[in-house]
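The passage that follows is intended for readers who have already worked through the single-chain material. We present the inputs for a multi-component assembly, then the predicted structure in tokenized form, and finally a short commentary. You are encouraged to pause after the input and sketch how you expect the pieces to fit together before reading on.
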Amino acid sequence: MRNLVMTVSYDGTQYFGFQSQPGGNTIQDRIEAAIEQLTGERIAITSSGRTDAGVHARAQIINFHTSSLIPLERWAMALNSRLPPDIRIMEARTADPQFHARRSAKRKTYRYTINTNRVPDVFQRHLQFHHPTRLDVEAMRHALRALIGEHDFTTFCSVKSTKPSHVRTIFDAEIVEERESAASSSSGLIHVFVTGNGFLQHMVRIIVGTLMQVGEGKRDPSEMAVILQARNRKLAGPTAMAHGLMLWEVVY
Amino acid sequence: MRNLVMTVSYDGTQYFGFQSQPGGNTIQDRIEAAIEQLTGERIAITSSGRTDAGVHARAQIINFHTSSLIPLERWAMALNSRLPPDIRIMEARTADPQFHARRSAKRKTYRYTINTNRVPDVFQRHLQFHHPTRLDVEAMRHALRALIGEHDFTTFCSVKSTKPSHVRTIFDAEIVEERESAASSSSGLIHVFVTGNGFLQHMVRIIVGTLMQVGEGKRDPSEMAVILQARNRKLAGPTAMAHGLMLWEVVY
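Having made your guess, compare it with the prediction:
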């Protein structure tokens, strides 16, 4: 049995999220069906973590154990020819038998993209949340810094979470701006990158929904530390739309 | 009557091209329907030129004459709220009564994008032709230079063309490479930009289909001038897939 590890990129627009569901139409269902078509094996794959319906992945990591003898270098192309065009295996490698895509992960990075131009970009509309009014990025940066470190993130977690602990560590969080020109100070793209040891349900989207209220001037950046302390989901902003979110990188 | 000029961006994936058709589902049909909903006027809009089914536009230009009194600054948002999300009015302005989006155009630029990475980019798959084998870009540049100037482009024109003259001028043609890293000399994106005073049916796509054969080493770059002289469509390469093509800019 080999333990195969693959980097997977997907456009989540058409899917009910990563994790397998009775109704099907998930990324996991499609990949497992492609593996079964290719090898005849019914295998449950493991991912670095689920992504919600509509959320994308630049580099999701999966692993699974197989007794198939297909050479390593043939796996990506063989699976891609059996997958829909919005899911692609970017790379395949082998790992120690102990490697586990979720448990072995050391840090994960998500990116959330906000387009602040007056009119959305038709070509990237499935990847960008359109917010055509000015956001105070410096205030958002200030607010974001309050989240760095080990905290109980209950305030920024769906109330449906069943996790026994909401303590997670954010190693790094930053905002990168992409302006079309130096003059266009109130337009362009805002990318929010958050890197942590793990994320709770809707955590990045609730953080971004709250940051947008800070950017709009509806909240003071100093509130961020206060509501984090309170461990109360009601004190945070709304859950930002799924389509702006992308699983960016997983480090092992 | 005001003569309104608008810059329109569209993702052509779902449409049967720009120009109105009895079957509907064209960019023109959607824009005219939105204008009628907004103003009650049934107006035929003029564009800088049709684009084929599946071809995109970053900045198509349209104009139309209207007696509507809606203030200029409200048009873009008012039409966008009545258009599907893959068609956006980027900007509206007024022009002299004589301005005509096609006849007044001085130069148009098209971009064709080829992705030479091993695996396609799921997020840009609707905008990039995937060609996962190495292309000799220097040979393609050499071949492309033969097209600059005023020529009869019958070789690079659909045999279905009904145009009385196939003489057009290409002012500029260049290839811009986007590499992910200096080391990845056989992967990345290749953008072919072609600027001319007008384009024949399938002209850019046939040019690119021929350039790809040059890039693959199936043709010598010096053939380009020879087949251009011959005015024979059969001597050129295949018509490249529509989805890699985008109307980039129109200059007046």
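Commentary: The domain at 107-251 of chain A is CATH 3.30.70.660 (Alpha-Beta Plaits). Chain A touches chain B at residues 9-11, 56, 58, 76, 80, 85-90, 118-127 (CB under 8 Å). How closely did your sketch match?
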